[in-house]
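[Discussion] Sanity-checking designs against the backbone

I'm trying to build intuition for which residues belong where. Below is a structure token string of 287 positions. I'd appreciate it if someone posts a full sequence so I can compare it with mine line by line.
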């Protein structure tokens, strides 16, 4: 008998008549709502127009979902193509499988398109969204919890996650509890989001610096959880593909931060792309 462990949910789908309510989808929706709410408050605090973040989200979210699914399918093609596989399953987003790297990349493209359409500067929007994105990604991991997927190595720790036998990977059938990587990422993301908010209040992280910190903090935590995971993925050399991706994205975030810091020292931040807009409030010194 397991003395202490986190139980996994018995169900991940509920039905209201013919309508299925999937925990994975609900977690993503809740995360998106929180990200928009947090981003809207932060953008308004900068002096931005009410409703701007919501308008941009209408573009960013669909792009992000498509990007996340594309990344997942491209990096794990063996799950959908080949003998015994059904390519149509690649379209079944509700069953899980969204790569955060593709979601952020293509979501940013959608946000950039929206910013240009509305005459809004991109980096103030990205900075406003930074902590909310961390919260959204953490909440989204609850979908993995309900699906009993993407957990870590076996563990006897009191907070080990109970996994039903049918969800245990090949070679791990004899183990009952595993590292709850969904919980690790959720907690880390919430801490990182709070840290960005605090640093922004202290140093006014403009010109993309808050977004760059989001990238670096998220990837730092993701490197740990990715190293713990045992789900079947492609490798490059001794490491999982996502570990290499995490390292590359972290380096990109560092370069972005250094570039943004230089821009912050050279020019005040503007919220729109109009040349006649007065400069934003830069009453605090650049970091």
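Best answer:
Here's mine. Compare freely.
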């Amino acid at each position: 008998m397991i003395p202490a462990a986190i139980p996994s949910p018995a169900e991940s789908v509920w039905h209201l008549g013919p309508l299925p309510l999937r925990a994975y989808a609900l977690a993503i929706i809740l995360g998106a709502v929180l990200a928009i709410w947090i981003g809207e408050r932060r953008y308004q605090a900068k002096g931005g127009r009410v409703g701007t973040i919501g308008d941009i989200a209408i573009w960013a979210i669909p792009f992000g979902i498509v990007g996340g699914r594309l990344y997942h399918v491209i990096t794990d093609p063996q799950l959908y193509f080949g003998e015994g596989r059904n390519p149509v399953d690649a379209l079944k987003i509700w069953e899980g499988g969204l790569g955060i790297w593709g979601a952020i990349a293509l979501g940013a493209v959608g946000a950039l398109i929206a910013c240009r359409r509305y005459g809004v500067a991109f980096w103030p929007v990205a900075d406003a969204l930074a902590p909310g994105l961390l919260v959204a990604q953490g909440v989204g991991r609850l979908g993995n919890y309900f699906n009993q997927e993407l957990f870590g190595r076996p563990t006897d720790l009191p907070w080990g996650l109970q996994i039903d036998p049918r969800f245990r990977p090949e070679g791990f059938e004899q183990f009952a509890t595993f590292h709850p990587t969904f919980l690790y990422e959720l907690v880390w993301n919430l801490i990182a989001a709070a840290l960005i908010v605090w640093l922004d209040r202290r140093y006014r992280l403009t010109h993309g610096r808050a977004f760059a910190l989001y990238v670096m903090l998220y990837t730092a935590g993701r490197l740990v959880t990715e190293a713990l995971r045992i789900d079947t993925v492609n490798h490059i050399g001794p490491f999982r593909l996502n570990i290499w991706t995490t390292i590359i994205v972290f380096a990109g975030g560092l370069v972005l931060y250094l570039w943004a810091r230089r821009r912050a020292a050279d020019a005040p931040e503007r919220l729109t792309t109009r040349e006649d807009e007065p400069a934003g409030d830069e009453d605090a010194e650049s970091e």
